[in-house]
Amino acid sequence: MTLRHMKIFVSVCEFKSMTKAANHLYMTQPSISQAIKELEEFYGITLFERLNRTLYLTSAGDTLYQYAFHIVTLFEDAERCLKNSDSLGILKIGANITIGTTLIADYIHQFHELYPDITVNVTIQNSVTIEQMIYNNELDFALVEELHRNTYLKTKIFCSDRIVIAASPEHPLASKDTLSLSDILKEPLLVREKGSGVRDLFEQIVLSEGYSLNPQWESCSSEALINAASNKLGLAILSYRMISQNLHKKELIELHVENLNLHRNLMVVYHNNKLLSKAARSFIEICINSGLSHIIN
User: Fold this and answer.
1) Residue span of the signal peptide, if any (predicted)?
2) CATH code for the domain in which residue 45 is found
């Protein structure tokens, strides 16, 4: 099988139509159909089912797509890298909201001292979205908190963080020296949206202790949760990095729960099949070296 077959197959998968794939690739539909037929005969499998004039991948087709997609994108990466080897270049980086708000600007500043002519494009989203963008080859690498182990991801720890349970200094729990998780869960909880690393990790911890998480507020805005906690509307569950200034100013206080480990690692992640450029490797090295001075206890 050739790269041409893989490109045609990936295009048909994405458009779910041989006619649309043919138009996209500037080919005739019979040529597309013939290439798919050759693939099916070569592997002895059926790749598509046709329902209501739409093509759907079979189980075997889906398996082939996982490989074909990365074969095609790797080729495109190599082609782009070679063609642009003497040009300025672009680095595409993803970051979760915590890292995007508190750390990445410093890393980019250090990077531009070494590579002033390389453009750094940054996408800041929650961790689930960033992980999907890595899988789709939309990013060179990303900086996020610990993710569920995925076979297609390579990870490197570069820093640490912890989740903070924060309350107004006037909250009834603020005066208590000893708190249990049960005490916390009885209060109105102000948490990030599903897909956020802080939310997902805290929910895992709650479930592992035999409880369930029933938040009163859910928001993609850490600032909204901080303001709500400051106004005694509940307890904010956030990254220490997002709330440290409010703690230092004593606008909020941190509630400590006995025997509850809320620490987490921050990681560089990229696709197993990704060929990192020299510039990308340098940026990752900056993150790791800088992370040593950003460790949180």
Assistant:
1) none
2) 1.10.10.10
* Type of residue at 258: E
Write the pLDDT tens digit of every residue in 172-187. Answer: 999 888 899 999 999 9
Residue located via tokens 């906690």: 229
pTM of full prediction above 0.70: no
Q: Which residues make beta-bridge pairs with 91?
A: 120
Q: Which DSSP helix (H) or strand (E) runs through 192?
A: strand 189-192
- Lookup: tokens for 252: 């909020």
Phi, psi of 208 (to 5 degrees): -65, -20
Write out the residue range of the structural domain in which residue 225 sits.
88-297
Tens-digit pLDDT profile for residues 131-169: 999 988 899 999 998 766 677 889 999 998 999 999 999
Of 64, 83, 102, which marks where a domain is finished? 83
246 and 292 share one domain = yes
Cβ neighbours of residue 94 closer than 8 Å, sequence gap 6 or more: 122, 123, 124, 125, 130, 133, 134, 139, 141, 142, 143, 144
Residue 123 backbone zone (phi > 0: left; psi -120 to 50: alpha; other: beta)? beta
Looking at the 3D structure of the chain, how many domains does it have? 2
pLDDT digits (tens, 9 = 90+) for 2-39: 999 999 999 999 999 999 999 999 999 999 999 999 99
Q: Are 137 and 94 in contact (CB under 8 A)?
A: no
Helices (H), the chain: 3-15, 18-25, 29-43, 59-83, 97-102, 104-114, 127-135, 181-185, 197-208, 222-230, 240-248, 278-291
